[in-house]
Amino acid sequence: MKSILLCSFALLAPVLANPPTSTPIPGEKSALSTFAMPPTRIVWSSDKGVENAENLLKPNIGQAALKSPIEPAVLSGGEGSIVLDFGTEISGYLELITPMIKDKTPPKARIRFGESVAETMVDVGERGAQNDHALRDQIVELPWLGKKMVGPSGFRFVRIDAVDPEHPVHLAEVRAMLQIRDVPYLGSFKSSDERLNDIWKTGAWTVHLNMQDYLWDGIKRDRLVWLGDMHPEVSIIGSVFGHNEVVPDSLDMIRDITPPTEWMNGISSYSMWWIIIHEDWYKMHGNLAYLAEQKAYLQKLLPRLATFIDESGSEKLDGMRLLDWPTFENKKAVHEGLQAMMVMTMASGARIMDLLDDPGTAQVCRDAEARLRKHIPEPSGRKSPAALTALAGLRDVKEVAEVLKAGGPKDLSTFYGYYVIRALGEAGETAAALDIISQYWGGMLDFGATTFWEDFDLAWTENAARIDEIVPEGKKDLHGDFGAHCYVGFRHSFCHGWAGGPTAFMSHYVLGITPAAPGFEKVRITPNLGDLEWAEGTYPTPKGVIHVRHEKQADGSIKSSIKLPEGVEQVDP
């Protein structure tokens, strides 16, 4: 042993004498940062087998130590269980720190992550509970005097059970380890309505959590890049964070794994959303070189899309025909929405190919758009496709607004609800849009949400319990008892990026900030306060942050204070 040590020191001597200024570390550096979060409360514990649980809420050292500064919590084997609340939904891991005890046998603990308290209390297979994409229910062995990381997953609540009757679980500390892109919130929104302010922030947080290695749609389930789902997310990222590489990285990744002869994610509308996102991203950031990188792909995708139009001008797209899940089985609604999407895509494609100096493909798009506009689908009566027809200019936006306002928050989805409120904004019906936002998205906050969900229906809340409490006898379980399609019961994602649309809406339609030239060299500011007394906020651009404050005057007019960064010109509405 002595000779080995001497040999080692001899090898290290040159390095120790001349230490390098930086040591190369193999591998690629992650864009994610990690933050430790202690639990905020004990939601529930078993009647027997739990000692010193309250000590898990006390500040600790975050390190295994020969002597714990705080008496460890103990869960007796086979009967001790506890549910912890970390205060907000996060994406990341659970870290368990164990003390020094006499028995070195690794005890077994069952860990169940939950986006609701109820989700922590069920087995895999029960009412939709699953381990898809991320293991939310598993048994792990804990080290003696060490740390154990469990995950990753998306969660707010964690249940810990000691499963081995012969070996209790001793816990010096339990922490959630948040993994997130540590990027500043450059955009902001405040108004005279605190509920709307909370909704803006919740939408931003929902999308921020999904800005992982790529731009995901969910942090528990759907830890994947879905192109249609990205469109609201990209709008929110532009409003809150400005440029972030997670967007082009995700767009490029799906492009590179999807031949233009196939649909992205197997869904025809998602290839169209890819095109629309690229134009939106160019408007936000003005990076023509990046847009030009898409030219070869667009030269194949756009003409292919143009072949899915019949002689009457009606779209005939194949693949999975999806707008949002609530309209999925309504063929009339799906056709209505896809017709509008084809119109928007061909208009966008023509503008992009003009920029990329390809008049031939641009003309293919214009011809296709002209044919499509000859066919106006019969209205299905559903709000999602109606909103798209208004945004595409197939139907009068004022006329459609009456359909969208009917019933307020009824017939919405958290995904296409974004286009419903956008269409209302285009019709000048901001007050109606904000009322829907307050009722619908605010309805999730009323029941304990800290992020917005994959889907939601206000009717679910009748006689339902909050998601941050044990479901009382006689109450409905808002998580386990509802859902449909791919999100039945506990498979339902409670942090879904497509659901944050109100954040982008309030920045664009209430603060009124939109680019009037690529990269915000010019900006158009047309506020609409609805019933608000005032609103203020910031919006990131490549040239700096725009600051605005709008105040409603006694005569109903709006007085605005606007501060623009150098190089940004304001133009008339």
UniProtKB/TrEMBL annotation:
GO terms for biological process: carbohydrate metabolic process. Pfam families: Bac_rhamnosid6H, Bac_rhamnosid_C. Residues 512-569 form the Alpha-L-rhamnosidase C-terminal domain. Residues 1-17 form the signal peptide. InterPro entries: 6-hairpin_glycosidase_sf (IPR008928), 6hp_glycosidase-like_sf (IPR012341), Bac_rhamnosid6H (IPR035396), Bac_rhamnosid_C (IPR035398). Keywords: Signal. It comes from the Bacteria. Residues 186-356 form the Alpha-L-rhamnosidase six-hairpin glycosidase domain. This is Alpha-L-rhamnosidase. It comes from Haloferula rosea.
